Amino acid sequence: MVEILCQVSLAMSYLHDNRFIHRDLAARNILVRHTGTRECPPVPCPPITVKVADFGRARDLNEDDIYVQATDRPIPVRWTSPEALMNAKFWDKKCDVWSFGVLIYEIVTKSINNPYDCGSKKYTDKQVKEMVPVRGIKIRPPPNCSKFLGSLMEDCLQFDPQPRPTFTEILHKLLSSEFVTDDFLVGRFFINKTVSLKVYYLLIRGVKD
């Protein structure tokens, strides 16, 4: 689970480093592929490769690190940050970080319910849009969530966008956790030859040395 989040945060860090925001980060837009052993180099590697997909809502940022939406379009309400729900015309990197917090919830709960729904209690997107920015209600770590992931989820789901961590900081935290194995680090080092390899290598050295 944590190793999946490592790969997602690496992809999002690469995206943000290149001044793009995704604006629709959710479990439905994460591709999971079983790597197996035949394609691996002669070193241990993770059995699952994860890729962030569906860039239909992705946009590049202006010089102020903001994307200004010119037209009204539907938004993924349950994954959208409160500031974007209040004003859907202005988006930045911190909006993606909020979505990552919701993604953690989806992965931990295996998407049994949509975010904010609980068992038979269902909410419409209109209700969620009022609950989050107006009434200050947000999803909480589920009971089966580890303390580590629960803390990370809470960090990402802060109503004030400024204290939310960057994806580089999220990746640092994930890599330094006890849940990430050396086999995973070595395997990802050799597989990710084209995606921010130098950054990833420095992160590994900085955390594990």
Quick recap:
The chain is 41% helix and 9% strand. The protein is mostly helical and 209 residues long. The protein has a single domain (2-208), classed as Transferase(Phosphotransferase) domain 1 (Transferase(Phosphotransferase), domain 1, Orthogonal Bundle), CATH 1.10.510.
Q: For the record, give the distance between the C-alpha atoms at the N and C termini, rounded to a whole number.
A: 23 Å
Portion of residues in beta strands equals 5-15%
This entry's quaternary arrangement is: single chain
Secondary-structure element series: HEEEEEHEHHHHHH
What would the average pLDDT be, to the nearest integer?
81
| Major β-sheet strand ordering | 1-4
* Main sheet attributes: strand count, strand direction, barrel closure: 2 strands, antiparallel
Rounded radius of gyration (Å): 17 Å
CATH topology (level 3) name? Transferase(Phosphotransferase), domain 1
**Structural class determined from secondary elements:** mainly alpha
Q: Low-confidence parts lasting 5 or more residues at pLDDT below 50?
A: 40-44, 189-198
Describe the structure.
41% of the residues lie in helices and 9% in strands. It has 209 residues and is mainly alpha-helical. The protein has one domain (2-208): Transferase(Phosphotransferase) domain 1 (Transferase(Phosphotransferase), domain 1, Orthogonal Bundle).
Question: What are the salient characteristics of this protein?
Answer:
single chain, 209 residues, mainly alpha, Transferase(Phosphotransferase), domain 1, 8 helices, 9% strand
